[in-house]
């Protein structure tokens, strides 16, 4: 019998009971700390997790992460690391002191790169690592154009299994793959899902999308939502509607 099984089941139960606020990360894709913090204020305390991506991090640096942490928020640092193993391991070490809870890297950087990142993330205070599989902005033709002959679904499964073997804590995938990844991966992996579009929201550059409720029912641990909240006329109301959809879907999944 597999000794790790009871612990994994406990994790799954804990995940199912998680508050809707811990299943939504708002993508702060803004050009400055001032505009990002002004936006956070407009959400009236409804959201707990904020994703700081390349646009904001390159402009504002790690000071903004400290500011968000001081205000009691959790930070998901989305730098999508993709470099040689030594450089990625160094980047993970540099991020450790920022207080970010999650950090992304590209699974397509390969096994040795992910192993080096996982080893670097053993240090106390390190973020949990998330491996990005196939970007939600890519359709099959985009992927094939990079020389990968597989469908986005097959490639996402292949990369997620590789990331799991390397000991990465979770994966970023599109809503179209979350159900199959839940079935193929061990219980306990975090599945973080962008490409979320509530009914009627503009699709923009995303290609593999679904509604918040559908992604949660298919097994997403956490949703990443940017423009449907940041560009809404009333962002606090848009966030509240998505949280309500997560809550409703979570209670029956
Ligand atoms: O790693 C990510 O967060 C990510 C991976 C991916 O495959 N697709 C994707 O959209 N994202 C991020 O999720 C957010 C989605 O934003 P919206 O399309 O505005 O909701 C952006 O900040 C992206 O950088």
UniProtKB/TrEMBL annotation:
The lineage of its organism: Bacteria, Pseudomonadati, Acidobacteriota, Terriglobia, Terriglobales. Residues 23-242 form the Orotidine 5'-phosphate decarboxylase domain. Pfam families: OMPdecase. Pathway: Pyrimidine metabolism; UMP biosynthesis via de novo pathway; UMP from orotate: step 2/2. GO terms for cellular component: cytosol. Belongs to the OMP decarboxylase family. Type 1 subfamily. InterPro entries: Aldolase_TIM, OMPdecase, OMPdecase_AS, OMPdecase_bac, OMPdeCOase_dom, RibuloseP-bd_barrel. It catalyses: orotidine 5'-phosphate + H(+) = UMP + CO2. GO terms for biological process: 'de novo' pyrimidine nucleobase biosynthetic process; 'de novo' UMP biosynthetic process. PROSITE patterns: OMPDECASE. Homodimer. This is Orotidine 5'-phosphate decarboxylase. Its EC number is 4.1.1.23. HAMAP family: OMPdecase_type1_B. SMART domains: OMPdecase (SM00934). Keywords: Decarboxylase, Lyase, Pyrimidine biosynthesis. The active site is at residues 78, 80, 83. It comes from Granulicella aggregans. Substrate binds at residues 29, 51, 78-87, 136, 197, 206, 226-227. GO terms for molecular function: orotidine-5'-phosphate decarboxylase activity. Catalyzes the decarboxylation of orotidine 5'-monophosphate (OMP) to uridine 5'-monophosphate (UMP). It comes from the Bacteria.
């Amino acid at each position: 019998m597999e000794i790790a099984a009871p612990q994994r089941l406990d994790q799954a139960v804990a995940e199912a009971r998680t508050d809707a606020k811990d299943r939504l990360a708002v993508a702060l894709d803004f050009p400055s700390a001032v505009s990002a913090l002004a936006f956070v204020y407009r959400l009236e305390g409804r959201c707990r997790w904020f994703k700081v991506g390349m646009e904001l991090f390159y402009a504002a640096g790690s000071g903004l992460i400290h500011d968000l942490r001081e205000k009691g928020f959790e930070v998901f640092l989305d730098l999508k690391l993709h470099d040689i193993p030594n450089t990625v391991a160094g980047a993970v070490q540099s991020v450790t002191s920022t207080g970010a809870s999650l950090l992304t890297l590209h699974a397509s950087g390969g096994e040795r790169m992910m192993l080096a990142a996982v080893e670097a993330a053993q240090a106390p205070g390190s973020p949990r690592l998330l491996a990005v599989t196939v970007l939600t902005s890519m359709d099959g033709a985009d992927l094939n154009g990079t020389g990968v002959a597989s469908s986005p679904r097959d490639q996402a499964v292949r990369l997620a299994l590789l990331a799991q073997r390397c000991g990465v804590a979770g994966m970023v995938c599109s809503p179209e793959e979350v159900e199959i990844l839940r079935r193929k991966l061990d219980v306990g992996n975090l599945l973080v899902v962008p490409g979320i579009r509530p009914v009627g929201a503009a699709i923009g550059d995303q290609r593999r999308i679904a509604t918040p409720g559908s992604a949660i029912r298919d097994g997403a641990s956490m949703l990443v939502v940017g423009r449907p909240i940041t560009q809404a006329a009333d962002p606090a109301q848009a966030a509240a509607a998505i949280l309500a959809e997560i809550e409703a879907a979570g209670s029956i999944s």
